[in-house]
Specification:
This is Oxysterol-binding protein OBPa. It comes from Neonectria magnoliae. Belongs to the OSBP family. Strand 2 and strand 3 form a beta hairpin. The C terminus is likely disordered. The chain has 1 helix and 6 strands; from the N terminus they run H-E-E-E-E-E-E. With about 120 residues, it is mostly beta strands. It has a 6-stranded antiparallel sheet with strand order 1-2-3-4-5-6, with helices on one face.
């Protein structure tokens, strides 16, 4: 859903595509929040995806805080002019006789061929 966005010239169509991507993450999830990357500070997780035409997208994440737990991440698809930087913070909320797990954070989407941040959002 993201890889085509930097190529959209009309700013309104580009904005609508970013909103569609953002809203695609709003779905019913299984109960509970997954724990952050790793309880050891400084340990990183890296991977890449093979895209069409021998292109790649890269992902790096690291737990950057233990109390409170925070994971920071970086995604880059250089051939598609796309970069995302963000931080995730799992949070618990006590509701009387039950508890809820929430995932908070912020993400910055940068369209590298546009020369500025195109969108940012908080969850």
């Amino acid at each position: 859903m993201l890889l085509h966005i930097p190529d959209i010239d009309d700013p309104i169509d580009r904005f609508v595509s970013v909103v569609k991507f953002y809203l695609s993450g709003w779905h019913i999830r299984p109960p509970g929040v997954k724990k952050p990357l790793n309880p050891i500070l400084g340990e990183i997780f890296t991977c890449y995806w093979e895209l069409d035409n021998n292109k790649r997208a890269y992902y790096i994440s690291e737990q950057t805080s233990h109390h409170p737990p925070k994971s920071s991440y970086f995604y880059l698809a250089p051939d598609h002019h796309l970069r995302i930087d963000g931080t995730l913070k799992p949070r618990s909320r006590f509701l009387g006789n039950s508890a809820a797990s929430l995932m908070e954070g912020i993400a910055f989407l940068t369209l590298l061929n546009r020369g500025k941040d195109s969108a940012k959002g908080e969850q």
